[in-house]
Amino acid sequence: MKQTLPTVTAHVMPDANRPLELSIVVPTYNERDNVEQLIENIEQVLTNVRWEIIFIDDDSPDGTADFVRAIAQSKSYVRCHQRIGRRGLSRAVIEGILGSSAPVIVVMDADLQHDETILLTMLDRIRHSQTEIVVGSRYCAGGSTGDWNRQRAAASRFATLLSRTVLTVQLTDPMSGFFMIRRDTFHRIVRRLSGEGYKILLDLFASSPEPLRFVEVPYTFRERRTGESKVDSAVIWEYLLLLVDKKLGHIVPARFILFSLVGLSGVGVHLLTLAMAFKMLAIDFPVAQGVATLTAMTTNFALNNILTYRDMRLRGRRFLTGLLTFYLVCGIGIIANVGIANFVFQRDYTWWLAGGAGVVVGTVWNYAVSSIFTWHRK
């Protein structure tokens, strides 16, 4: 495919001796066709502000990172941070903010749906008040979701309603991906962030040790001009994972809860496979049990790879090697399960308590060890 070079347009930044005022962090994945227009739009708005823009690219197949670097050759305020082998919008934003330099940071998308013309208004709210976060809102007075259909609008309202389970403030648009934050505020919260899912604003408000001072600035959400929306069923699942993490993460990790639910589904797969093999196909019970066990472990691995560890999903050869390590880990987990259950039972405890102890130990083992050796999570 022929590579189209960016068109260089003249733009004069404020005096380089002036302090940097604003860092713009833009997560990208397959946004090559939008980044140049986004930069030009921001240049027209921030004419009297010294700023930088950092694109955090998750190794886009369309060459977004190389395209940004080509632009940066002539525009020193443009930077690219390319992530390889890592996914997840919230973590991309966190890395981008940590790699930026200005005392104020704005987070926005590259798809041109966020209205850059309100950036000066947002910055003014930060400059001249005690505000810690300014949120670009589609739902406060004067804001709009544009031409959304009824289904998308209903889904957004439902997601906003769910966010109330972890928020103590009355944000009209907690799902917004367009906001400005003081650096000192971000650094006060960053170590509490879960980094799950794609709604970093919700994570920030839910993780702050004290209520954040915020204001909302209305804007109209634009239609995407090029590329495809990143909102799909997996992204919705990540959002639910974030809510679980913020609600229960201080007790047990959200991934462990999800891993356990996948394991519970594996019990159903095991019993169904066993019934088909033993009852319908008349296979000897030990063989049928072995087939059922292997099938359950395989489906558990596949579901965990898609859901629990979506941001570290294994593909190609790594999928096969990951499956083999998962078999090994779970095999040892079965031995631990039986051993602990028998140990507890021999101490004259009831059978159900002994069995439950074995399940807990086996599940914790499988989760902890597979996260390290199968999905290589530190």
Descriptive labels:
2 domains; Spore Coat Polysaccharide Biosynthesis Protein SpsA, Chain A; single chain; 7 strands; alpha/beta; seven-stranded mixed sheet; 378 residues
Overall description:
With 378 residues, the chain is α/β, with parallel strands linked by helices. It folds into two domains: 22-231, Spore Coat Polysaccharide Biosynthesis Protein SpsA, Chain A; 254-373. It has twelve helices and seven strands. The protein has helices spanning 32-45, 64-72, 89-98, 119-127, 150-163, 183-189, 200-207, 233-248, 254-280, 285-308, 317-346, 351-373, and strands at residues 22-28, 51-57, 78-82, 104-107, 133-137, 179-182, 214-218. A seven-stranded mixed sheet has the order 3-2-1-4-6-5-7. The model has no long low-confidence stretch (mean pLDDT 84).
